[in-house]
Amino acid sequence: MTSEPGPKRLVPPALALLLLLQACGEDTGDLDREAPPAPVMLVKTCDGDPAFWPERGVDADAAGGMGIRLEWDLPEEPEDLAGFLVYRSTDLDEGFTLLDVDPGRFLEGRPPTYFLLDQDPSLRPVSFRGPRAWYFVQALDADGNVGTPSDTASYRLWADPRLTPGSVSVADDTLRASWQYEFVDYFAYGFRGFRVVIVDAAGVLSWAEEIQFNLEPQMDFLRPVPALGLAPGSYRLRVDTIVDHVEAADSLQVPVRSNPSGCSLAGSESYWISFTF
Question: Model confidence at 214, in pLDDT bands (50, 70, 90)?
Answer without folding.
Answer: low
